[in-house]
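Lab notebook: predicted structure, single chain.

Context: the supervisor wants predicted structures on file for every construct in the current expression panel, including those that have not yet been purified. This is the next one on the list. No modifications to the sequence; it matches the entry in the shared construct table.
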Amino acid sequence: MRMSLSPRCGGYAFAAMLILVWWAGTASNVLARGQIPSPGDVLLALTDDPRLFINAIFKTVRQTMIAFAIGAAAGLTLGLCHGVFPTLRNTTGPCIEGLRPLPSIALIPIAIVFVGMGDSLNVTIAAFACAWPIFINTHDGVKGINPLLFDTAFTIGITRRRLFQSVILQAALPMAMTGLRIGLGIAFAVEVSVEMVIPKTGIGALATTAALSGHNALLYATIAAAAMTGLMLNQAFRWTEFALLRNYGPQWSKRT
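Prediction complete. Output recorded below exactly as produced.
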């Protein structure tokens, strides 16, 4: 996998510059140390009890992946069906368009009624949120297939099952992968958000606990840990995307 070093190094340099400005601001008291701790204080909070962060991140990532799997299954299935069957699209389209704009966090009271206050609540809300970009991108991927592909397939007498496997799935895969990558990020963000609203376990609950206790260094440390976790999840999915789409042309194989 060949990657250009200059853009990546430029990103790291910009991040280092922001940290340097942050450190200079706290050292010169331009930034109030009581509200914004120094990078050193945040690093100390991160390394003071590593198991605390590891356990919280593990719980958040585990529930994120469960929610992502559920949302991906729903989004891919619904997107493929909507793209292939116009009758289904016309029948259920208004209901879907009514549900899609709903803020996922606003569904917490309803979800509590059906699934309770346990881990299922976080998974349900995150799965609902991440299913929509997967559905939209998969649907658009199917709708964007060149009609000539269908005409050619029917001309050579291909079966409907083979048509679905060899034409529809293959042609819709790039757009579906984009939806999956966006959905994974949304699932993680919503999972952390629900943990903050209903703090039980996870990195979001740890951030809320730190904020309520006035431990600002720990609060910023949890935010940094969440950001790094999200970055690693996104990069891991990009590698998966590269492996699956490297034969689809340079516009897809270079997206790492």
